[in-house]
Amino acid sequence: MDTAFMRKTFALIAKGLIEKEQLLQKEPTRYPYSKALQHGINMFLAASQQAGCQSAVQYADETSFLTHFITKPISDWFSDWNPDIIDKLNFREEPFYAYEAFAYQRSGNIYTPSSDCYEFLEIQDNDIINGTDERILYEKMKVLDQETYCKIRRYIIEHPIITIEDRRAMSLDLADNQAARDAFQFAYEEITGDSYRCPCCGWTMIPGKYGYHCHSTHCTDIIPELTDERKLDISAGELYRLKKGIMRYFAAPGKLELEIVTFCEKKKIRWALWPQMDRYDVEIQFANGEIWEIDAKAYRNPMALRTKIQNDNGFPEGEYARGYFVIPSEYTVNQRNYTTIVNRALTNQKNVKCVTLKSLKTEISRKENSCHAE
Ligand SMILES: [Zn+2]
C-alpha cells in the first residue's frame, strides 16, 4: 500500500457514492449498487489491515461500512491507524485527507454525496462527468458564437431560479438561434414540491427528514432557519431552477468571475469574460496595453486545487503579462496558508500565482494607478 493506492481508493469511493445517487434518481424504488464503491471499500479495508487495524474486517459489507465511516470527516477514518504510517506516506499533503464527510444520511441506508465528495471527484482523472448535465450543457454551448456564449453563461450565473415568464422572455430573445435557445432551456428544470430560496447561493433549499439540503453542503452549514418569506410560491405559476450539476459547475464559480468584472467596470478597465473560447475565465487589459488572464477557482480544499492545477499542467500558456488563479477570500478564513499551499505547485511559472479575490483587487488597483502615473 502506498499513497497512489490510497488516492485510487478514495476516487473509487467518491465515484461509487455518486454512481449510487445517479442510479437512485433513475430508479427510486431499487437499492442502488455500485461496483466502484465496493472496490473502494475493499481497498480501504485492506490498507487498514496493513496499517494495523485488525478490526477493519467487520466493515466489509457496504451497509456497515457506510454506517461506520461515510458521514465522518476523512481524517477520522484513519483514527485507528498507526500514526507513523500516516506520517511516512505524507497523507496530510493529500487532497483526500483534508475533506469533511463524503456523504450525509438521507434516510435509513441511503446517503447523499456531499459537495466535498463532488469536489474531490472533479480533480480525479476519470470519465464519470461524461453524460452529466453540466457536460451536455458545455457541449451545447461550445458551438455558440462568443457573444451568445457569454450571454447565456452570464444569465445562468445570475439566475439560479426563474419564472415561466422569464423563461418565455429569454426563449423569445433567442428565437432566431435554435442552438442557443436549446442550450438555455436545457439548463433549467421545473421546480416541484416544497422549496425555499437558499439565502446563501440563491438556488433551492429543500427541507428533508435529516435537515435542509441545497447543492452545496456548505450552504446548509451556515443557515440556521428558513423563514416563510423565502418559501417559493409555486401557486403563482411555474418556477424553474438550474439543474443541480449546472448550478454546481457553472453558476457557483461564476459568481467570482462576475465580481471581478464588476470591479473592473468600476475602475474603467477593459475586460472580457471567457475569452478565446473559454481558455481563461476573465481577461483584463490595462491602460498601457498590459494583459492579465484570470482563472476563478471554487475548490475549498487547497490540496485539491493544487492537484487539479498539476493535472492540467499549470496555467494555460498565452501572451499575458500575469496569470492568476483566484479563490474566494473567505476560503482563507479557516485555512490561512491556502494560497501558499497552491503556490508551491506554480514555482516554474514565474508570472502566475494563486491569490484571494481581495488581493487580486488590490493588485489590479495598484497596476491601474501605476499606468496613470506614467
Ligand atoms: Zn445554497
Can you tell me about this structure?
This protein has helices at residues 3-26, 35-50, 62-70, 83-88, 115-122, 133-142, 146-158, 164-173, 178-187, 217-222, 244-266, 275-278, 302-311, 338-343, 357-373, and strands spanning 103-107, 110-113, 161-163, 188-190, 196-197, 204-208, 211-213, 239-242, 270-273, 282-285, 291-296, 322-327, 352-356. The chain is of the alpha+beta class and 374 residues long. It has three domains: 3-122, no CATH class; 133-248, no CATH class; 250-373, 3-Layer(aba) Sandwich (Trna Endonuclease, Chain: A, domain 1), CATH 3.40.1350. Strand 1 (103-107) and strand 2 (110-113) form a beta hairpin. The structure holds zinc ion (ZN).
| Order of SSEs | HHHHEEHHHEHHEEEEHEHEHEEHEHEH
Using the CA coordinates, give the radius of gyration: 22 Å
Oligomer: single chain
The fraction of residues assigned to DSSP E strands is: 5-15%
Uncertain ranges:
none
Specify the biggest β-sheet.
5 strands, mixed
Give the tally of structural domains: 3
**Any ligands, ions or cofactors bound here, and which?**
zinc ion
End-to-end CA span: 59 Å
Task: Identify the strand order in the major beta sheet.
Answer: 9-10-11-12-13
Q: Quick check: average pLDDT?
A: 90
Structural class: alpha+beta
CATH topology group of the largest domain: Trna Endonuclease, Chain: A, domain 1
User: Count the strands?
Assistant: 13
- Total number of helices: 15
What's this entry about, in short?
The protein is of the alpha+beta class and 374 residues long.
